Amino acid sequence: MPFHTIIEPFRIKSVEALKFTHRDDREAALEKAGRNVFLLHADDVLVDLLTDSGTGAMSSAQWGALMQGDESYAGSRSFYRFRDVVQDLTGFAHIIPTHQGRAAERILFHTTLSAGQVVPNNNHFDTTRANIEVEGAEAVDIVIPEGRVPSAAHPFKGNMDVAALERLLAEAGDRVPLVMVTVTNNSGGGQPVSLENLRAVRALCDRFRKPFFLDACRFAENAYFIKLREPGQADRTPRAIAREMFSLADGCTMSAKKDGLANIGGFLAMNDDQWAERARNLLILTEGFPTYGGLAGYDLEAIARGLEEVVEEPYLRYRIRSTEYLGEKLTAGGVPIIQPPGGHAIYIDARALLPHIPPLQYPGISLVNALYVEAGIRAVEIGTVMFGRHPDGSETPAAMDLVRLAIPRRVYTQSHIDYVAEAVLYVASLRESLRGYRLTESAAALRHFTARFEEMADTG
Ligand code: F0G
Fold this sequence. Notes:
- With 460 residues, the protein is of the alpha/beta class.
- Helices cover 39% and strands 12% of the residues.
């Protein structure tokens, strides 16, 4: 075809109206929410880029599949359909449904970890880290050095630092029960991990006899990046690449709210029979019977169908391109973002954009709040509020202070994204007037969800 425009690979069958608000309304709503956008009413948000998790639009085929749901408590037909699809994709022997990703994490870590142990990952997501720390174990991030530098160019900035992993396994291997890699690397900017890197991690895990688990939330986006960027992969289907990624691991945790294209759900999958038995026993205690694991039969149907749609090439081409499009607009306007753009989100480098706000005065929160008040856009801080507090109660700046604009799947059109770009450039033009924040209330773990803030009178 002589055309280059990448269009949305769907047409719209059902719409949901947006509510337009005034700046004064948003200022009041944010004040009421303790200046924490997590505490806003979603109706007061115009374009919601808080997360790409559970916020996607399901296809008509998925909505149709809901009616096929078998709600039998035990042995539901929907479970077998779900299990077959997941098994066909991942190859793992045991498929354990959970209500979302963190339930899979909690079950995996509670049944395999003990206090004093260490779990390496490229970058742990916040729930993964918290579920490790709650067991008294340590979550160690060993992404490659380029993965910590927002402006550094590298096709696979999510890669694990294999030399650092080797050192860790050589020095403290007896304390490492398993090795994890997150695809794509959400906390590091939605950056992909190469097949070559996964193979190298596999080889080390074989040498040190460690199980290797993927945090597979965005496996399809990762597979498409491999197709685009890894030598020799261009002619393979995303599905074939994804299957190879899974084949290199011994198990995975998965949130179907991302690349399952569903609004809720997840699973834990693995090959080890004994670990799976322990996991199923805990599943029964906290989630439900092993053939539904906290989900309705219709959820299992929607996920099964979603996992098939998500590896379709027209979808992934549009998905990766639309994120890149926003990244290009921000970069052209001089806004510092993690380069290259990730799969599910653009990450603005708030520390670089707002150098007058020190990390412990939360430049990310300052930018998030300005985006909401000025334009009704809800983004999320991924920085010192999310990662700066340690189990002993101390606080240090996170490695980066980022603001994530996460793009829900199949929800917003190109003009929504044009609006977002325009708004970010406008807020960037106000940068010198933005001020730091202090915490007025904060919980001991995962404090970013419920904290309340106060804007500082002046910084410095
Ligand atoms: N792992 C990664 C890499 C994630 O991004 C998430 C969730 C989880 C695990 C946990 O899955 O939410 O289903 O329990 N990330 C969402 C986000 C919340 O906004 O990035 P969950």
